[in-house]
Amino acid sequence: LSIVCALHVQRNDKRTFDDLSGLWTFVRETTNTGDIGIENKWFEKDLREFKNHTVMPVPCAYNDMAADAELRDHVGWVWYQRNEIISQRDNDFRLFLRFESAQYFAVVYFNGKEVGRHVGGHLPFQFEVTKQVKFGAKNVITVAVNNTLSWATIPQADFNYMGNLERNTSRFELISRYPPGFFKMVGLFDFFNYAGLLRTVYIVKKPKIFIDDITINAEHLGSFKWDVTSDGYQLKQQCIVYLYDPDGKEVLQEQNCTGSSQVSNVRPWWPRGMGDPDLYTLKVEIRAADASLVDVYNEEFGFRTVKWDNEQIYINDRPFYCIGFGMHEDFEIHGRGYDAAVMTKDMNLFEWMGANCYRTSHYPYAEERIKESDRRGIAVILETPAVGLKGFPKANQLLHMQFVEEMIKRDKNHPAVIMWSISNEPHTEKKEARAYFKALIDQAHTLDPTRPVTIVYGPSNYDNDQTADLLDVICVNRYYGWYIDMGFLENINRSVVYDLMLWKEKFGKAILVTEYGADSLDGLTQEPAVDFSEQYQDELIRETHKAFDVLRAKKVIGGEMIWNFADFMTGMTTTRAVGNHKGVFTRTRQPKIAAYTLRKRYLGLLQQ
Ligand code: GCB
């Protein structure tokens, strides 16, 4: 059975789960000293007997849990362990260990034996442990997580050993500028590499024969298709689907695992500002020959259609102008760890701002957030973890394909998801990028023919990009007035219009501006404006909006997203002062001056 997770955990008559959130025993190996833990079989040991053991909350990044630079900057293995009593009552279930996100590479052990490994953060995976479980007794779950990135990973990092260049000079017998073993790992991306068990861990309990996946394709005019796959399903068993409308009234019942139908008087799912985000539920049952219930799953979804042409995106045949944010899953203390409070605050601020759209820059966000976007009518551009790619070897392409599959399998039934972003700012000016991305774009189209596919461009230009003609929609990030022509705010309007017109002329496709903006340190005010002041950020945004108005009128752009929703942590570099400050909110989610400018604009656009 594949380790890919299609359906979220659920409690019902036939299934249940344990949420393993809380404190786990934690041991950190010394930075980058090989595989000491694995070689010495730490997975067979009780980690509480280790002198240096401590505890670590899950879900949470471990990096900011102490006033300890070594923990923050750790590169290599960390170990998590937890004991769980699994009741005799669970004897009839098949049991799976499920991880919503482990950054970056995880090896999972159950009762001292390896049960599986997974590469890549921000996407869920599961391993069956039914045969290894000791019912009515203590079971030991051990997870080794390694955050090392290199050119062979996605995202990529420059990983260089610098302490082994032996040099003899006649006068000093100098060995190297660096101490032996010194290395540097620098991510090719602009956010902190928060690591560990970043999202919830579950023991999932499913019946012996269970529903493995449900694919729903429901359009706003009532066309409805479903396809159910299951594990262990036998022909004499029956699949029954029940469709419930937003009021819970049954509107359809069919006895087939795969089928299509026409539903009348549909209440479509609309993004905010266009209508209500109505949600339907498909209940799927598998019944045995004697009609007894084998498994059941309730999947929420919406009737909505996404279309696109060379000007814009349409939702339910009406033009949809995306107004919103690039953002990050990022907050003080828990880093990128899932937190329902931060998520709720973010979504409430979205509504306050008048946004209708965001991009999960630069990795898929927790499924809880996508589900909440369904409920609130906020459109989502779902992005893979492939940010900043510079090299395009075959092995990376295969890994990238795994991420596309895991992402689409997880989120395909969410009406809020309107587009798949294959990558953010890859170096698509390189020739070899074309074959690399063609395979990924084809794969996304095959896995989901209903949504447009995009790449978010940064380094490439209209005249050297090797991939943009393969896309449905083009996204571009542009920093006029910041990385280009700092201080010349009055040029922004002209530059942005010029740049985007050229993309439009060359490719003739719908274009969204997915990033623009400036850093500002909250409370730093300067009149006249200088860089890093709140005024500069605000004025840059206002000037860019002038260009957007021109481009909108010419039907050149189909959406605009500020970079960034909130300030966020990055690695150390000369252009960052305790992180990236392009947020229109501070890291603790208080508005800067620019937030009010943006709010006025967004609320106005939302009503149009
Ligand atoms: C970009 C990247 C984003 C950075 C941003 C910046 O183009 O896509 O990850 O954070 O620029 O602020 O430099």
Small molecules held by this entry: (2S,3S,4S,5R)-3,4,5-trihydroxy-6-oxo-oxane-2-carboxylic acid
Class derived from helix and strand content: alpha+beta
Overall shape: it is: globular
CATH architecture field of the largest domain: Alpha-Beta Barrel
CATH class of the largest domain: Alpha Beta
In DSSP terms (H or I, runs of 4 or more residues), the helix count works out at: 9
Nearest-angstrom radius of gyration? 25 Å
What is the CATH topology classification name of the largest domain?
A: TIM Barrel
Helix content: 10-25%
| Name of the CATH superfamily of the largest domain | Glycosidases
Mean pLDDT: 96
Low-confidence stretches: none
* Strand arrangement, major sheet: 25-26-27-28-29-30-31-32
In terms of DSSP E residues, the strand content is 25-35%
Q: Give the CA-CA distance, first to last residue.
A: 49 Å
Instruction: Tell me how many strands there are.
Output: 32
Report on this model:
With 608 residues, the protein is an alpha+beta fold. The chain has 3 domains: 145 residues, Jelly Rolls (Sandwich); 94 residues, Immunoglobulins (Immunoglobulin-like, Sandwich), CATH 2.60.40; 301 residues, TIM Barrel. The strands form 8 sheets. It has an 8-stranded parallel beta barrel with strand order 25-26-27-28-29-30-31-32, surrounded by 6 helices. Strands 3-2-4-10-7-8 form a 6-stranded antiparallel sheet, with no helix packed on it. Strands 1-14-5-9 form a 4-stranded antiparallel sheet, with no helix packed on it. Helix 5 packs parallel to helix 6. The radius of gyration is 25 Å and the shape is globular. It starts with 15 loop residues before the first strand and ends with a helix. The structure holds (2S,3S,4S,5R)-3,4,5-trihydroxy-6-oxo-oxane-2-carboxylic acid.
